[in-house]
Amino acid sequence: MGVIDELTAEFARLPGVGRKTAARLTFFLLKRSPDEARRLARAIDAVADRVRHCSRCGNLTETDPCGLCEDPRRDRSVICVVEEAADVLAIERTGQYRGMYHVLAGRLSPLEGVGPEDLNIDSLLRRLVGSTGGKEVQELIIATNPSVEGEATALYLQKLVRPRGVRVTRLARGLPVGGDLEYADGVTIAEALSGRREL
Amino acid sequence: MALATLDAIILQAFPYSETSKILRLLTPGHGVQSVMAKGARRLRSRYGGILEPFTDGFATFYLRQNRELHTLSDFELVRPRQALGRDLVRFGGASLLAEIMLRTASEEAAPEVFSRVRSALDRLEAASPETVEATALAETWALITALGFGPSLDRCVECGEAVPDEGELFLDYAAGGVFCKACQGGGGGGRVLPEPARADLRALSAGVVVELPRTGAHWQLLSRFLAFHLVDAASLRSLDFLYGARGAQ
Ligand SMILES: [Zn+2]
Ligand SMILES: [Zn+2]
Questions:
Q1: Spacing, Cα A69 to ligand 1 middle (Å)
Q2: Which residue among A118, A132, B169, B197 is buried most deeply as judged by most CB within 10 Å?
Q3: What pLDDT was estimated at residue A131?
Q4: How much helix, strand and coil, in percent to the nearest 5, is found in chain B?
């Protein structure tokens, strides 16, 4: 396989990109200056090289702990628990939330072999105990997707966390059932946040 | 090739691409079928987020012979089962039924198995908190029985003679039933089943919810029995989940 085909094949693996679009992207790059193509290559290379999971919250980050965890202006008494790092971005876009995050990296799905031990739950529990002797975190907002599996995950966390004296809330309805938080618009997420209810 | 609209229960739904989902459907006339639901993950999808595990509805797709993956063209909701996610044992129990169907997947018509699964999901959703575990056990044993590998509890698996209701007998997992006193058994995997436990198991296999003082032993029995009767012996993930979920309740 020649290099042109190789690049096209790589593009075609991206979400939402078919063979035709992949070929168009390849030829677009070939028409531009080599520097432009190299800039793209360097950006991809840097992402692959430097982006890691934050050891505290599981979010994607270049620095560990991540910027959100290190930001002194954020409210440390609230942690918003999401399924994926993309959900953090979606909630940040609303500009309505000033607390901390925790990324589970999935949701409970017995059928797909995802049990509690496969999610970032231990690290969440460690944060509740906290380095300052507890009491720092007062509320956990569970923002897993409003799907059957997301609901079960929320319930599991609630059962686990409630005995530790932390308030547990769930995003309000209004988010489409079965939808992905990642794709919800900012207004919908902001409303769901402000209308969260006790679990 | 024909466009067919079939009764369908979604056994499993997982993301395929950024925008689509793959569904594993249970149908009465065509067993387990896989379909691709294009655009189902989009926020304003015409499916409106109904393509979720355990949902009941009418699925429309081109049913092509020897095709592994069909393309869903419509799904009409009959009954959402979102509520099964709001209780860990209900969720685990429903997942277990789905997992058994996926592990024994065949494309053959099995209308009685289909209605069994459908009513099982309804009963799991409706069960009172006190009976939900026994309901999950009963529905699982009843499904196993409907699939044709339920335990033989009234006749000896070796000689076929009727066994008395009284007394303890050896239940052999691999043989799939009890041994009479004359045939003994007990060489392979199995356990001695005291009289009340056999009565409970008989009731559960008929889908009857009985009062179970110790459910732990029943889950263990179910798990061992299934290990001998599913194609590959790997343990069922839903059973592991259920076992843990009971503790978390
Ligand atoms: Zn972080
Ligand atoms: Zn015998």
A1: 4
A2: B169
A3: 46
A4: 35, 25, 40
Residue B17 CA to residue B40 CA, distance in Å, equals 10
Of A110, A156, A178, the CB nearest to B52: A178
Model confidence at A133: pLDDT above 70: no
pLDDT in tens, B133-159: 999 999 999 999 999 999 999 999 999
- Within an 8 Å CB–CB cutoff, is residue B244 touching chain A? yes
Class level of CATH domain A74-170: alpha beta
Q: Which of residues 38-67 of B touch A (CB under 8 A)?
A: 41-43, 45, 47-54
Give yes or no: residues B61 and B112 share one domain: no
Hey, is A130 helix, strand or coil? coil
Domain boundary residue among B80, B99, B120? B80
Give pLDDT, residue B240: 87
Q: From edge to edge, which strands make up the β-sheet containing A75-82?
A: A99-103, A75-82, A139-142, A167-170, A197-198
The verdict on B141 and B128 lying in the same domain is yes
Structure ipTM over 0.95, yes or no:
no
What is the Å distance from ligand 1's center to A101 Cα?
7
- Residue B14: closest C-alpha in chain A: A112
Closest partner CB to A115 (pick from B81, B96, B240): B240
User: What pLDDT was estimated at residue A173?
Assistant: 61
d(CA A192, CA A154): 15
**Arithmetic mean of pLDDT over chain B:** 89
**Among all residues of chain B, which has the CA nearest to that of A113?**
B237
Is there a contact between B81 and A148 if contact means CB atoms under 8 Å apart?
yes
Full domain range(s) for residue B44: 2-80
Q: Do B73 and B111 reside in the same domain of the chain?
A: no
| High-pLDDT (> 70) share of chain A, % | 87
Contact assessment for residue B43 and residue A188, using Cβ atoms and an 8 Å cutoff:
no
Kindly report the CATH number that applies to the domain delimited by A3-50.
1.10.8.420
